[in-house]
Amino acid sequence: MNPQLRRQLDALNADLRDLLKELKKYPESDLNRVPKPGAWTVLQVMHHLMLAERGSHQYVVKKLSFDPELKNKSLASRFRILLLDTYLRSPLKYKAPEAIGDKHLPAISSFWEVAKTWEGQREELAAYLAQLPTNYAHKEIYKHPFVGRLTLGQMLRFFQSHFNRHRKQIRRALIFQPNAK
Length: 181
Hints:
Blueprint: H1 3-23, H2 28-31, H3 42-64, H4 75-89, H5 111-131, E1 142-144, E2 148-150, H6 152-175
Antiparallel strand pairs: 1-2
């Protein structure tokens, strides 16, 4: 695997391990509790993140399955990832894309099943990225639904920014729990 992609994936996995370590202290009832009307539970937020990552991975697999002509990383893709980072760091709320939104999030889930599934998805992503030719690292392969074409490294950067945004949401939801640690 490209060393930069490996570093990004290792950082993502370290953040996931830290989040899971933090959340395992809470009873599942707290993780499945709606913090306020119209908001997602902690486990729904986790499902949303998993769906986004899985959909992105599946897109890349499908895109590369037919040997497409790919553009090299460009100034435009650098601008697009900066725009996406800014969007994800802003305090403004945005509606999630339908494919990873409310109707695809279970009302109740098991923390340990979610954790196991997410870690498994990350392992699959790592195995997939490891087998790709190194020349793909600087190609605009991934298509983000809002900003368009990005490289694999920029896709992982999106995963990190998206994770960071929703980790804050998870922590806010837990502050208002009666059993907050």
